[in-house]
Amino acid sequence: MHADRYLNRLSELLAQVDRSAFDRGIQLVRDAWAENRQIITLGNGGSAMTALHFMTDWTKMVFLAHGKPFRGRSLVDNVGLITAYSNDISYDEVFSQQLMGVAAKDDLVIAISGSGNSENVVRAIETAKNLGCQTLGLCGFEGGRLKEKADNIIWVRSNDMQLVEDVHSIFGHIVMQALCRTETGDQ
Asked: How far is CA 43 from the centre of its chain?
């Protein structure tokens, strides 16, 4: 009963997903990888785990498939750095401050926020754009400020955080499979 209800809602949501936005997102990651640019992910809570999951899958599997390095990093995987910036500056700046130290022009920054309104995620997108990075925002609900600020978006139009997170995870798995089945530089 509960499984049916949840899976039916997920199926209905997947039927509404903007597949062209997924394809644009896949192309952004593919191009950054093919051009040896850095791909940087970030998010809070469950979105932090999604950001880290992306890097785990993409960095390992794309390299194993092609032998070409995948220059990926997540800004959520160094607890010491996160707590140092949070304590010494502000949690609102935890990702922006990290980006200033590691991002370069034309890198791809992927910001994930279920609500689209996490202040530190929105500020990270602003910082990334100021640094000349490309930006991709993954959001849900009404899209929030992330939807307005990111250059490219994958917007899951649902007010259910778990369903939003499911679709964001599915995007990551599609990226991994698309890149693993692609020859370096092929479309």
From this structure: 8
